[in-house]
Design a protein that fits this description.
The protein is α/β, with parallel strands linked by helices and about 300 residues long. It is about 25% helix and about 25% strand.
């Protein structure tokens, strides 16, 4: 039977929101990327007076929102430093687990593949550890207080067997870099705020626009997703299909945008698009560091 006890939490743009306390919820951080355009391990860069990583700032918001389980998907060679930081950072009433993104050596045995297998693959690697509703975040994207609270509300109000997932969307114009081009998952949404499709667009910048994007007011995904454990069955199915259709074993990725686009269009799930008053901040290039440092030092 579902727990019906309720908890009142403050949010940035609402005075109070009543959240039904139905399940424990988990917070997943994808931190195994190699950051080729950043020239460094940006997942471990620290910012602001507190000298925290971007993921740790997000985790502060998450703790405020009631998350107590944290999972980091990482490259195993960084296990020691992540373990040390998380042990020192998290309060005693929180737990964490490191999950290594699989190399899939049998699949890549004939090539020298250096990069991970993609964001959908990273989430799939959590399938043996995560048993409750959970959100997914990038380690190098600062989502904001309200965005994390919105996601916590969704996760607590959704049954574990539901195949309705969620994404917190941001305006494209607020996610572009002045230091180079970026890729964004541009969202098409119906009148009830459910996802119709995601179009992964590359080469976007503040000075140019890909023809597939009609407006910089378009909404995009920055990989702040909310899932139930039902997503793992869909990911396993998608992974099997991905492996059968690899064209370049050294570079193809099982990415979350393409996976969600396919499953939504196939009627296997729905995705509710959540609005937020939070502003997104992130680092793609080394020169993106200065404005993020300034913002977090104020």
């Amino acid at each position: 039977m579902m727990e019906t006890k309720k908890k009142i939490v403050a949010t940035q743009n609402l005075n109070f929101s009543i959240i039904p306390m139905v399940e424990e919820i988990a917070f997943v951080v994808m931190a195994a990327g190699i950051g080729s355009r950043y020239d460094g391990i940006k997942q471990l860069e620290t910012f602001g007076k507190s000298k925290l990583t971007i993921a740790e700032y997000n985790m502060q918001y998450a703790i405020d929102a009631g998350f107590r389980q944290f999972y980091f998907v990482i490259d195993d060679k960084f296990a020691e430093i992540f373990h040390r930081r998380l042990k020192d950072f998290l309060p005693p009433n929180c737990k964490f687990e490191l999950i290594y993104q699989k190399k899939e050596e049998s699949l890549a045995k004939f090539c020298n593949r250096k990069k991970p297998w993609g964001t959908a693959h990273a989430i799939m690697c959590c399938g043996q550890a995560v048993r409750c509703n959970f959100c997914v975040t990038n380690a190098d994207d600062l989502y904001g207080h309200d965005a994390i609270f919105r996601m916590a509300e969704f996760l607590r109000s959704t049954g574990k067997k539901s195949k309705t997932f969620a994404n917190v969307a941001y305006a494209l114009s607020d996610t572009l870099s002045g230091n180079g081009t970026v890729s964004r998952g541009v969202l098409s949404i119906d009148g009830d705020s459910y996802l119709v499709s995601i179009n992964e667009v590359h080469g976007l910048s503040m000075n140019a626009n890909d023809g597939a994007v009609s407006s910089k007011d378009s909404l995009v995904s920055m990989n702040l997703w909310g899932f139930t454990p039902e997503v793992f069955k869909l990911l396993e199915e998608g992974w099997r299909g991905f492996k059968q259709n690899i064209s370049d074993i050294a570079s193809d990725e099982f990415g979350i945008s393409n996976f969600i686009d396919s499953t939504v269009k196939g009627g296997q799930c729905r995705v509710k698009i959540l609005n937020t008053s939070s502003k997104w901040h992130g680092i793609t290039y080394k020169t993106d560091r200065a404005p993020v440092e300034k913002m977090l030092s104020e």
